Structure formats: C-alpha cells, structure tokens
Amino acid sequence: MNKSALFFFLLILPWIISCSSDDDGPQKTQEQLAREKLAGEQGSLTWAVSGGGSVSKDGVSQTGDFSNFEITFLNNTGGRNYTSTGGGNLFDSNGSWSITGENLDRLILTGNQPAAGREMSFTRNQDRLRLEFTVAAPANARVTALAGFYVIELVIKN
Q1: Domain hosting residue 137, numbered range
Q2: What is the pLDDT of residue 33?
Q3: Phi and psi of 135, rounded to 5°?
Q4: pLDDT at residue 3 in the model
Q5: Is there a domain that residue 12 lies in?
Q6: What is the per-residue DSSP string for the chain?
Q7: Does 16 fall in a domain?
Q8: Where residue 66 sits, what CATH number does that domain have?
Q9: Residue 157: partners with Cβ closer than 8 Å, 6 or more residues away
Q10: 115 — alpha (psi -120 to 50), left (phi > 0) or beta?
Q11: Would you say 140 and 158 are in contact if contact means Cβ atoms under 8 Å apart?
Q12: Global pTM?
C-alpha cells in the first residue's frame, strides 16, 4: 500500500504544481500600469470635475468655469485617445495621449488648445486624478488669459 500511495502522489504532483497561484500570466509593464491609472483596467475611464473635483489657476479657484469639464481616456487596440467636454478654450474636444517622464507620471495630450502639447504631471489616488501643468503666456491675446499654473482635481464619473 505504501508503494501505491507514493505512486499516486508522484502521479498528481505535476498537476498540483501547475495549479499554483504563482502563475498569473504575463506581468504588466510599468507603462501598462501607468496607462491603467488614466484609462482603467478595462481601457476606458471618464474623469469629471463634478462630484467633488476642482480647478485652480495660479492658486485661484476656476472650478465655476470648468464645472462641466470631463475627460475620457481610451486605451485599446485603436490607440490611446481622449475626448473631453466642458474644457472651454483650454482643452481640445478630442485627440490622442501619451505617457512620458522618467517615472511614467507625465501626460501629453495632442490638439491645438493651450493644454495640448504640455507635459502634465498626473497622480491617481483611488478614484481621484490630479493634473498639474503650466500654460505659458503666448504672443497672441486670445490665450494670454489662459496662461498660468493649473491644478485640476478630477473624480471618476459614475
């Protein structure tokens, strides 16, 4: 009986090893994890000022001007795109986005509005996203009023 128990154990040992919890598939890269901070694990996440967010420029609240601001980050096989509403003359209504920075904590949006092409610092803390960036004063008067240092606090839209 001892030999049959040993034989049975040796027979099922490879099965036990293959079922271990260590094999969770391929590990995500640091860039994949950074993209998930913006677009979520499912590849699409909408962030909004309403529901507890805020916008400030040079330390002065601008939340009233951006109370309807929302931005959706998409990260899928079609690429990394975004759409936004309520961004006034600061944000484009759509474009693409990329992650940069030594710590993969910088965001760059494409487009023509003043927020586009700026390196934005981003941090995510659970359901809150903080963007920080500077819009330099340009030569034309149209966007001079938008120049300044912005801090935008967004919450996940339900």
Answers
A1: 43-156
A2: 92
A3: -105, 115
A4: 64
A5: no
A6: -HHHHHHHHHHHHHHHHHT-TT--SSPPPHHHHHHHHHHTTTTEEEEESTTT-EEEETTEE-GGGGTT-EEEEEEETTEEEEEEES-TTTS-SEEEEEEESTTS-EEEE-SSSTTTT--EEEEEETTEEEEEEEE---SSTTTGGG-EEEEEEEEE--
A7: no
A8: 2.40.128
A9: 46, 47, 48, 50, 51, 70
A10: alpha
A11: no
A12: 0.81
Residue 110 within any structural domain of the chain: yes
Q: How many residues does the chain have?
A: 158
Number of structural domains found in the chain: 1
Q: Structure tokens of 72?
A: 């959706």
Whole-number Å distance between alpha carbons of 87 and 128: 18
Q: Distance between CA 138 and CA 119 in Å, rounded?
A: 16
Partner residues linked to 73 by β-bridges: 45, 82
Q: Is residue 28 part of a domain?
A: no
Cα separation, 57 vs 155, whole angstroms: 18
The DSSP result for 49-78, as a single string, is STTT-EEEETTEE-GGGGTT-EEEEEEETT
64 in Cβ contact with 78 (< 8 Å): no
Residues of the chain with pLDDT under 50: none
